[in-house]
Amino acid sequence: MMMRLMSWTALIFGCLYFLLPLIGMAEFSLKMRRGVYSLDAYAVVLADPAFQATFGYSVLMALMTIIFGVLLVVPTAYWVRLKLPGARPYIEFITLLPLVIPAIVIVFGYIRMYNTSSWLPLTGSVTGTNILLMMGYATLALPYMYRSVDTGLRTIDVGTLTEAAQSLGAGWFTILAKIILPNVLVAVLSGAFLTFAIVIGEFTMAALLDRPAFGPYMQLLGANRAYEPPALAVIAFAITWACMGLIQLVTRFSKHERARA
Amino acid sequence: MTDSPDRPAKRPFRLPFEWLGLLPFAVFTLLFLILPTMRIVIGAFQTGDGSFTFQNIADLNTSSIRSAYWTSIKLSLISAGLGCAIGFAMAAAVVFGGLPKGIRGPLLTFSGVASNFAGVPLAFAFIATLGPVGLITLWLKTEFGINLRALGFNILSFWGLVVTYLFFQIPLMILIITPALDGLKREWREAAEVLGATTAQYWRMVAFPILFPSLLGTFALLFANSFGAIATAYALTGPQLNIVPIKLFAQIRGDVLGNPNLGYALAFGMIVVTGIANFVYIWLRTRSERWLK
Amino acid sequence: MAYLDLTHLVKTFGTNRVVKDFSLGIDKGEFVSLLGPSGCGKTTVLRMVAGFEGPSSGNIVIDGQNVTSLRPNQRRIGMVFQAYALFPNLTVAQNVGFGLKVAGMGREETEARVTEMLRLIGLPEKGPSWPFQLSGGQQQRVALARALAPSPRVLLLDEPLSALDAKVRVSLRNEIRAIQRDLGITTIFVTHDQEEALSISDRVVVMNGGVAEQVGTPFQVYNQPSTRFVANFVGTLNTFEAEVEAPATGDLRLGGVPLSLGRPLSAAKGAKIGLALRPEAVHLGRAPGREVVLPATVREVHFMGSVIRIKADAAGTTVSLDTFNRPDTPPPAVGQASEISLSAQDIILLA
């Protein structure tokens, strides 16, 4: 049938478009040693102390951002669902703002607001700038984290669970830590993996705040080297893929749990 | 995290303790999202000594900045348009095209990955593929004798950026439009057919009008996405390509424009453009959701 | 030859034979219901007539024209779906006029016809409204108007009332029947609700497992069920087991009590056969004309106003019987020992 032919054409064209760059970068990254495929580029990259330092820095920042994000978003989303349902549209609007306001504008605002002559001179110290960067990352990840947790909360009856826990004598902290968090763990993990992917590859904020993150490192290497950048791209893609894969895994795992219950 | 006191059983009036629960969130978003943005917006209308002025906005009207905005808008329109068209074709192929059912899952998963694979590594991937010594470039030269460079194609250029941006624009379109296509009930198609309509008439009179808000809205979203992106562009073309984010980047780094407040105006202009595009997206999405219920 | 002729329709999905051998002739202007449980193939038959499924074998002929190989948009058929399927981007008037617009009818003609149809379904001012502004019942009426506007040869309804509230269901089915009578259009109505099918059809086709078990008027299907399935599915049925005493005269023993059917039986003496009775044929206590009397113990009494539904244990099984309310006679108490009486004429023999 005509339609099936067109469909296959569209699909194959699309697949080619997506696969070729991936193949291209993988192939290029193997060409460091003249004339033969080798993993030399990867060896060079992985041994580079700058790689280890910046990658480690970004991983650490990602973890801190995730922890901060969870501690901020889960109680807030829970509270809004439970006590302030009228505020939800406004809160949701605010969480969508980072998608509207480009990251470069946000970090520009940080530099202007928290520079050394301001009321909160975060950029004056290394620690201060690190905190600022982490806040920036948390802001970038906020839409995804909030939406993920909110969706997770929607599927459990927050009000009834809370009342049940309260009638059994639990305080707020216990409720959040022992009742709510475990039940939205899947959603939290999804948000966490997405945050990880975002932070690892982030360039704009780290570059403008002049921090030794993985993003600026990649860009610098790209400007100076030939074979290492594609190797880095392969690594970055693998990480992104792993994060998405983990999200799928975690979501499917939760479905089985629900079915068993 | 604030522990709110339990409300006492008998109280003639309600103290707003509930709102305290929002305090951490409010502080965070205020300090790190709202106030910095406001600072930019207000700064766009201030002179060096703090008085109110429109001069900064007026100063945007230099040829270099105008050209930057225009290039950015062109880039966003084209990448959004192509992203919409190709993404729609692929999504439609998977949902209606009579393809095996097992293709849908992997396509959506891959779209999720690809839409997040933006930034610096994406530029590297495309350089490695379509760059001067890229995989495809060399293959075309050795197998078919086609010299891309001679044909005028250069990955390190505006069109190279368009091709690269499509890598995350197309999957984003697929992810958003697939649920909308699912929402096209089978009965509508059947009802139209029984009433005498051909496939083309069904699409023209029923399906496309229903999908139109989603399509336009997603176009707006893709537009905003492209307009605000910088990392890929910076890694691909370096600071030379004259688009607004790169100009702003250079300005923040080193005040290349010679007027700090002009940076505010540039940023403000970006917020206005992406703000309008996102508003259009949200408005159209709520409209289409009403129909697809 | 009938106006709508379905001959030996078979439909197989993979290894699953959903419709096994279905034949039916429908006269012009007739209202026929396809009645049966889920999975019996009734919807598949309807969709084959509409053209959405192609029969694995068999023929469909409408008004002398063999439409089996035609696409749905070539058959001049109207269809009403369970989920209304109104186009959400078009107003009510535009929905109703859709088939006319597709056929190329001029604007004034279309408007006139749309107005006429809206009046027919009782929603004359709803033309400019949007589907989401209407209730379920109203949407379904608009769907009916839309299907009828292009003057189709046959009208198909696929469980159109299943998604509606009970009250709306009853009033709307009567409306549909009235409109159908008015226009004289040949109609096939698919439902799993036997009350619906019985109350509005000229003929009922009871389907089970891909075949038509019985075709007849509602009266025939209810009172003369030809198979055990039909007897059970249509209406409530009390079933008993009786022992054959004399096959030639139809003498049986039921719960120890002798009764005579007055007609010869094919079973042998001593064999067990199945008997069935409708609730209205069983009487609590004795009554003239009901010569068979069985002892019974009242188990359940449901006072429903004008009707009292009683369940009693008799002849080794639980019998369901209905009796009308009488102000001077209170309903029996649960556990009360009583009698039930019935007439041998009312007994339905089960195959």
Give a brief rundown of this model.
Chain B has 293 residues and is mostly helical.
Helix-strand pattern of chain B: HHHHHHHHHHHH
The biggest sheet of chain B, with number of strands, parallel, antiparallel or mixed sense and barrel status, is: none
Which fold name is given in CATH as the topology of chain A?
A: MetI-like fold
CATH architecture of one domain in chain B: Orthogonal Bundle
Query: In percent, how much strand structure appears in the residues of chain A?
Result: under 5%
Structure annotation, total helices of chain A? 12
Helix coverage percent of residues of chain B?
over 70%
What shape does the CA trace of chain A take?
globular
Describe it for me?
- The complex is a heterotrimer of chains A (261), B (293) and C (351).
- Chain A is mainly alpha-helical and 261 residues long.
- Chain A has 12 helices and no strands.
- In chain A, helix 6 packs antiparallel against helix 9 and helix 7 crosses helix 8.
- The radius of gyration of chain A is 22 Å and the shape is globular.
- With 293 residues, chain B is mostly helical.
- Helix content of chain B is 71%, strand content 0%.
- In chain B, helix 5 packs parallel to helix 10 and helix 9 runs antiparallel to helix 12.
- Chain C is an alpha+beta fold and 351 residues long.
- Chain C has 2 domains: 230 residues, P-loop containing nucleotide triphosphate hydrolases (Rossmann fold, 3-Layer(aba) Sandwich); 112 residues, Beta Barrel (OB fold (Dihydrolipoamide Acetyltransferase, E2P)), CATH 2.40.50.
- In chain C, the strands form 4 sheets. Chain C has a 6-stranded mixed beta sheet, sandwiched between helices. Chain C has a 5-stranded antiparallel beta sheet with strand order 13-12-11-14-20, with no helix packed on it. In chain C, strands 15-19-16-17-18 form a 5-stranded antiparallel beta sheet, with no helix packed on it.
- In chain C, helix 4 packs across helix 5.
- Chain C is elongated and about 75 Å long.
- The two termini of chain C are 32 Å apart.
